[in-house]
Amino acid sequence: MSLFRTTLGADFARLPPGLQKLHDQPGRWTGRAEVTRGTSWLARLLTRLAGFPPGGQVPLTFTITATDAGEVWTRDFGRHRTRSTLCAGPGGTLCEVFGPFRVTMRPAVTLGGLALTVTALHFLGLPCPKFLLPREASTEVALPGGVVGFDIRASLPGLGLLIRYRGEMAPT
Known about the structure:
The longest helix has 10 residues, at about 40-50. Strand 10 and strand 11 form a beta hairpin. The protein has one domain: Lipocalin (Beta Barrel). It has three helices and eleven strands, in the order ααβαββββββββββ. By secondary structure, it is mainly beta. Strands 1-2-3-4-5-6-7-9-10-11 form a ten-stranded antiparallel barrel. The model has no long low-confidence stretch (mean pLDDT about 95).
């Protein structure tokens, strides 16, 4: 059973078909993304440590590979590769690891899509204070023709934008 199907339980059936397809089986998706990075020196350092791409409009290839522990997500933003691992977390959450960061998120089915809200953040295994957690949710929506739209963002209070990438992709 897929990671999102397990984590969302009965709510998985409420996802639009395009999002069910994305999150129910390993696969490859292609599309385009607009990447915006924070400009402060600290934002640049943190996004570099996490392995995020430089800014710009780029082709995107997104691959999900199932593992015994969860999933590996590989995002090829043009020539830049960002890889993360996901696993089930406590209490219906998902944990995603980017380099030295572990982000715990709560997925929730919304009208026409999916929202992912950060509930915890660890750096080198150490918990970050709750007041530093991002305030906005990342979202995925189903578009006509099986296309998925996404708006993934991370910003920190007092620091501002770290990274945002948004765009569309379809299964290949």
